[in-house]
Please model this.
Amino acid sequence: MTFISRRDLLKRAAAVGALRLGSGQAAIPADALGAPESPAVRTAVQTFKREPLETLTASEMDVLEAIVARLIPTDANGPGATEARAAHYIDRALGGALAASRPAYSAGLVALDRYARESRGAAFAALSPADRDAVLTDIEKGAGTGFTGSSVAFFTMVLNHTHQGTFGDPSYGGNANFVGWDLIGYPGVRTMVSPTDQKSLESKAMKPNHKSAYEYDFNKDTERGRGPASIKNDH
Amino acid sequence: MTTKLKDTDVVIVGLGAAGGVAALPLAQAGIEVVGLEAGTWLTRRDFAPDELRNNYRGWPQGIQKANQEIPTSRANAASATAPRGAIHPMQNAVGGTTLHYWAQSWRLNPWDFKVVSETKRRYGASRIPPGSTVEDWPFGLDELEPYYDRVEYEVGVSGQAGNVNGKIDPRGNPFEGARTRAYPMPPLRSTEFLDKMTTAARSLGWNPFPGPAAVNSRAYQNRSACMYHGFCNRGGCHVDAKNSTAVTTIPRAQATRRLKIVTRAHVTTIEVDGNGQVTGVNYLADGVEYFQPAKVVLLASYTYENVRMLLLSKSKAFAKGLANNRGQVGRHYFSHHMGAGVSALFPWNTNAWYGLPAQGVAVDNWADDNFDHGGLDFIGGGNLWVYSDRRPIGAAGMNTFGRAPNWGSAWKTFIKENADRSNSAYIQKSTLPYEDNYLDLDPQVKDPLGYAVCRVTAEYKENERKLSAFTQDKMEQWYRAAGAIAIQRAPLGGAMGVSTHAYGGTRMGDNPDTNVVNRWGFAHEAPNLGVLGASVMGTSGAHNPTLTVQALAWRTAEHLVKNWRNIGRT
Model:
């Protein structure tokens, strides 16, 4: 094997509790990643001092990471949106499927940070957790000022995308190490669930399998369904 | 500019639930059919168990033709147009939305065909809600029964019969109209939670039964049984166990070599000659314009697009749009009232992660006219439907029943305990057409080709709202009997908006002054134009429309085969 998946990398990082990614945070210490599987892997891993931001600026990412860390906090109930890398999911998705929301993030993140300074005297990421929650509560209730339109729309959008980045399939860059699925007890993607499996779930015996949709090779299956002759387009 | 193609017997516009079924009896009878489909073939390789893609990104609708034509909507003529949705509810593909639909395959109840006459007979004419334009269907359930039966077997439906030739089977729906034989497959499996709901319904004296599904409960027609992987809700099937027309009737029609399928064909208008007969359709494919001449045109897109296509197809014979000289195209529109749901929180897990929305337990005691409305102030009723279906992002977004905020540590504690402990019922209710609910062309919004999109002007009325409150009471009663510790009810219903269950607009009936198509599905004003889909339905009943749409499509196609010389353009 000459390739190490991002997920495997993160599993190792999470395993030693050293995962802090994103701007303004320490990069993953190379020694936290465990022994690489080959020299090629070691090179690749050591090259990544920090991850690329695909759409957001470093300053925007600071604010977004601070927001998601309060929406689904890391606490006594275990990892939260930070460990799930929900902000990374959002950054990546804003360059693709969520591109229509990019302007709303630009405007909203600036407005939220400005509101934090005006109402609580410091940048959002610099506030105490209690003050951050107070700011977010204002935004959620529509009391935050300086937003284009209502702050509620911005809050709802970020919360929804944080859910996607925490509980969505890990192949999209969030739900790292399946922390979101473990939080809510989802036992993982299966392509076949027999009556015995269902009974095992009902008797609480089913263990999480920690599998993404894209770890199954049914995606390669071409033998059934519509054959090539049908797919020909003919006017 | 336009390339005129070789003449064909029949051109079908749209190969989804309706067109995909109608193609089969036509092709089997030796009629040459061209099927024009705006989408492409999708194979089971396209159907990953991926909630983000299926349920949050609307793949692949977001990039499709339909998505450029999302209808606009408003509650009534005096209200502002609502913000337009991001995703069209229907999908362009060979097989259409049957690829990813929920696959509940219900027959209508006998009452649904005779709402006017039965209401008058039982309660008096004053009980027809004011402003409603509802009519009896031109035939009863008995006329449609052989076609329901045919489609259930051709497509494959799993279920438990409740009434075979008048003999009631208590395991099934005792209120269903008589069927000539049982379903081809037994119902989908139950779960511990569904068993609890079944027991609770019986404790109330109700008659619970497993709902019918166009999903294989066992291997059928050399296709797999359902694998219960939990991504059936807006997702295609990875093992072809969901009986989309793309894996059932369409391949069989192709095998006759009488069905030619053209994908990525964007039909723009239907052409008409000086005598008012349709002559074929215009379509665009990969930037090239084509005219496909045909002896008969079967319009089989979705309700909104059926109406839009007719209104856009103006000619000397039809200045207000095809088959619209009496102004009936777009009238008698309604969308199924499926809102006003009820959510329940239980003190135990429901273990719903690996289920599908067609796997559930139904109660029809409060549907349609299955109960006495003598002391009530509405007509119709709702089908109570509890199903086993959950995925992680949806679970995280659950109602917190006022017991926790929606974020933060307190929410996290709540969701950790309760993510699998809720259930929601959406309750389909018999919904009526009204004088001031209609579809037309939006005066402002156009698609990228410059054609106006469809505009929905419709809202639920007093009858639907009273019925909603009544069925919410019943649903709450059922959930409580099963042990629910908290209940939340959704609002009773206002603007109809854009729906996956959209009816009317080209209603079927004998009277050409109030109906667009005749009892066989052919336009009163343009007899070689057939219309397929729920746009011909004049009532909804309390159950999903697709099986009825498919039975009607088969019946229209069979009528065409039997009357080819009379209907086909000469």
Q: What stands out?
A: The mean pLDDT of chain B is 97. The CA atoms of residues 72 and 455 of chain B lie 5 Å apart. Chain B has one domain: 3-65+88-567. Chain B touches chain A through 60 residues (CB under 8 Å).
